[in-house]
Amino acid sequence: MPDYDADRFTAIYDGCRQRVWAYVVSRAGWQVADEVVNDTFTVAWRKLDDVPDPPLPWLFAVARNILRDSIRAEARRASFAAEVRSWAEPAEADIAEEVSERSALLKALATLPEDDRELLILSGWQGLTPAQAAAVVGCSPITLRVRLHRARRRLTQAASISPPTEEAAAVRRVSTRVRITAGKEAR
User: Fold this and answer.
1) Residue 84 lies in a domain
2) Cα–Cα distance, 64 to 159 (Å, whole number)
């Protein structure tokens, strides 16, 4: 970038950083302020030609959008965590074996990468066919089947690593059921 752009950005940063930080603190607290301010000025640097004069209202709008996006992301994470916790809590109608299987499966599932969990949940709990799950994650059905196979293998391995062995056996039984169910849906 030319020196003019660097000088302009530096002037915007020096002149507005404290006010943007204060705005973010007033909206979300000081714990997230530095990160949001950094992200705000990163956007300003990338879109320097779009930054109007005076820049402060535009910077406030960018910071507001970043805050909104982070709040939405946190809400999604909290919602998912609550959902997983609710799956782990046994319902009154569950028999002991189902409770043991569910607990073992969730413990093993929690150790997997997020992408593996998503595939297993889409296939096993949501009951999507490979073609439907592929559309959700944005890949071909063949790619999804390969990824799902690997995720199931990692789930079985995670179950065999974690004690006790009864729980590992329960996860293998559930994993086999998921594989059989998915195989029927693919036909």
Assistant:
1) no
2) 43
Based on the number of CB atoms within 10 Å of its own CB, is 13 exposed (0-12), middle (13-18) or buried (19 or more)?
Answer: middle
Long-range contacts of 156-163 (CB under 8 A, 24+ apart): 158/108, 158/109, 158/111, 158/112, 159/104, 159/105, 159/108, 162/107, 162/108, 162/111
CATH code of 140's domain: 1.10.10.10
Mean pLDDT of 11-40: 90
What is the C-alpha end-to-end distance of the chain, expressed in Å? Answer: 57
Asked whether 169 and 163 are in contact (CB, 8 A), the reply is: no
Among 97, 102, 117, 85, CA closest to 171: 102
Domain for residue 89, yes or no? Answer: no
Q: Are residues 71 and 109 in the same domain?
A: no
| Whether the Cβ atoms of residue 144 and residue 134 lie closer than 8 Å to each other | yes
Please tell me whether the peptide bond between 130 and the residue prior to it is cis, using omega within 30 degrees of 0: no
Contact 104, 170 (CB under 8 A): yes
- Dump pLDDT digits (tens) for 154-187: 888 887 765 554 545 555 555 555 554 445 544 4
